[in-house]
Specification:
alpha/beta; Rossmann fold; Argininosuccinate synthetase, chain A, domain 2; 3 domains; five-stranded antiparallel beta sheet
């Protein structure tokens, strides 16, 4: 009886090649698993493709709501952006995908899990750290670190030699990753940072800001304890809300991010990310936090966000530190309930008002009109104490200058 291997299967070029390669080199029974995190039409026809290529069966596992509720929303609540730009769409999806791979491998009695991530990329780290954290006894196979295939062109030639149709054309070799949160693009002209992306050819979720409408679009997003649950007055699950924001934001040229980022493995890479709905959601959530969180919490949370992003980007989701950071973030979200209005215009997200029963803004204090809660005379004593150290230092310098 053959040993079983569970393959993270997308139906793309790499995983199409991997099925016959595993059979030729390991004599495994290949169980293909496509974990649906909102890829949309990319899943169409996968079963026929996987079985015709040699897989014994294909699982299609829809974990979209789990992905959004347990990975995306906690990361958004943390305000985490990798290197202050990337909204971590691929990074957040990998641990939930790998978690499901582990569950199916245990169910099937598989001895190994295989992925199609390259030896230069981040995903190999994300997949493998998750497997090590959840099922350390399962073997991991990473063909890109083993085989002789060196390029997309080599992979297409491998399939041609075996009479297998490649799922992409030779001239269309952008490397893409899609889920409900975003769409990433790498390869071709993007590998030269001096070249502007060919957005007319590249973009699939969005239009460029130049092609966005000449009139703004307004959206209102409601949150309950930091969880987005209402769009323009209609209650809905976060996954549905994000899908609708993707459509609205995409039409307005929102969330197109061109970044040269530092990969986990040490090199820099250039990619373009489309995250229209996510960009809107981050902006709305931040506006509500500005209204409802105190100064010290906002300041400390902003430093935490950097570490949270690093952990997520590096595949360290199932770690004690990430879990502890999430616990802190959860505690900050207890008062993040309210509604935020935003104006979307040609790639820009412009605040247009926010309300909350937990608002710390007090008009009686903040208004130029003197209210009962603030006495202007109190400021003098505060400034005297706040500036005391500066005054003492200045006096010392003056004394020493006179010697």
């Amino acid at each position: 009886m053959k040993e079983k291997v569970v393959l993270a299967y997308s139906g793309g070029l790499d995983t199409t090649v991997i099925i016959p390669w595993l059979q030729e080199n390991y004599n495994y029974e290949v169980i293909a698993v496509c974990v649906d995190v909102g890829q949309g039409k990319e899943i169409d026809g996968l079963e026929e493709r996987a079985l015709s290529t040699g897989a014994s069966k294909l699982y299609i596992e829809n974990v979209t709501d789990e992905f959004i509720d347990e990975y995306v929303i906690p990361t958004m609540q943390a305000g985490a952006k990798y290197e202050n730009k990337y909204l971590l769409g691929t990074s957040m999806a990998r641990p939930v995908i790998a978690k499901r791979l582990v569950e199916i491998a245990l169910k099937e009695g598989a001895t190994a899990i295989c992925h199609g991530a390259t030896g230069k990329g981040n995903d190999q780290v994300r997949f493998e750290l998750t497997v090590k954290a959840l099922a350390p006894h399962i073997r991991i196979i990473a063909p890109w670190r083993i085989w002789d295939i060196k390029s997309r062109e080599d992979a297409i030639a491998y399939l041609d030699a075996r009479g297998i149709q490649a799922p992409m054309k030779k001239g269309d070799t952008y490397s893409r990753d899609r889920n409900l949160w975003h769409l990433s693009h790498e390869g071709l002209e993007l590998e030269d940072p001096s070249i502007e992306p060919n957005y007319d050819k590249l973009l699939q979720m969005s239009v460029s800001p130049e092609k966005a409408p000449d009139t703004p679009t307004y959206v209102e997003i409601g949150f309950e304890k930091g969880y987005p649950n209402n769009l323009n007055g209609e209650s809905m699950p976060a996954s549905q809300l994000i899908a609708q924001l993707n459509e609205i934001g995409g039409k307005n040229g929102i969330g197109i991010i061109d970044i040269v980022e530092n990969r986990v493995v040490g090199m820099k890479s250039r990619g373009v990310y489309e995250t229209p709905g996510g960009s809107i959601l981050y902006a709305a959530h931040q506006e509500l936090e500005y209204l409802c969180l105190d100064k010290q919490t906002i300041a400390y949370k902003s430093t935490l966000a950097v570490k949270f992003a690093e952990l997520t980007y590096s595949g360290e989701w199932f770690t004690p530190l990430r879990e502890a950071l999430t616990a802190f973030v959860d505690s900050t979200q207890q008062t993040i309930t309210g509604t935020v209005k935003l104006k979307l215009y040609k790639g820009n997200i412009i605040p247009a008002g926010a309300t909350s029963d937990y608002s710390l803004y007090n008009e009686s204090i903040a208004s130029f009109t003197t209210g009962e809660l603030y006495d202007h005379h109190d400021a003098e004593g505060f400034i005297n104490l706040f500036g005391l150290s500066l005054k003492v230092r200045a006096m010392m310098l003056q004394q020493n200058e006179n010697k």
